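Email to the structure team, subject: MARVEL domain-containing protein model.

Hi all, the expression group asked for a predicted structure before they design truncation constructs. Nothing fancy, just the tokens so they can compare against earlier work. One-line instruction: predict MARVEL domain-containing protein, return tokens.
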Amino acid sequence: MKKIPSHILKAGIRITLLLAIAVYFALLVVGVWGIQKCPVQEYIPLFLIATGGVGLFSKFITFMRDHIALHIDVKYIETTFYSVETVFFILGSYWVYKEYQPKYDPSYGNHYCNKTVYMFAFVYLTALYAIAVAIVSGFACFLVCILFLKTVESGEENVDAEAQTNTEEAENRPAQEVA
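Reply from the structure team: attached below.
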């Protein structure tokens, strides 16, 4: 199998990090913009701000890992930030899905949320859940295929062994019995 050069792998990782940075920056901007625009659940803009800020910082550390690693141990910092992201993901899921479908009209007073703020958080969380389901489903399909191939392989070995046994028995029988 042909080995992929490391500079191509690093370029792909950097592009993925840059896309994540763009998403986290958008979360931060929408959260700051909507800080007073979601009274039905004031934590939704804070979720966007916290997720965007922590995500930007963690991806920046990952992006600059080679330079930072010369001075400090980066893996503990990354682990801490990814743990905080996970906590905010769980809290954000609760806050956003609990208020599904809020009123988008400010005339409802404290029972509304700006549509951009709410839908941005909702789509972000839903997309992450969809990606997680796709990964788990793909892994499950992979495992089923492996088990199926293993079963087929062991079945072929049994058929081959049985055929060999029958051939040996036929060779060992006297010529009169065969006719």
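The radius of gyration is 29 Å. The helical segments are 6-33, 43-63, 65-68, 74-98, 115-172, 175-178. Ping us if the truncation boundaries need rechecking.
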